[in-house]
């Protein structure tokens, strides 16, 4: 059985380093009850979760994608997000640009240029490095 896309989020560029905002997002969305799926080309596990090297490798679907990679890298993989049923893409600070927002829209997804942690009423400071 493949996972349902409801309450499932892909974190593109998730980091094993707890000081990184992408790692804080993994912890934040888990606390909010989401099934979190980290994507990183080299890491094998982040915060106890299995990591997938690409969006295409993620089993099942997801409703959200949180992007923490440079816009020029994200543009290359947005078609994979569509294939996973993603409806909204958070383009976090440093990951946003007019080009990636346009690509997300062109593919029928909603771009959200905001910090994905702040957008859910939380603060990155709530997720310490230790």
Automatic annotation (TrEMBL):
Residues 3-97 form the CoA-binding domain. It holds the Pfam family CoA_binding_2. InterPro entries: CoA-bd, NAD(P)-bd_dom_sf. Transmembrane segments: none annotated. This is CoA-binding protein. It comes from Eiseniibacteriota bacterium.
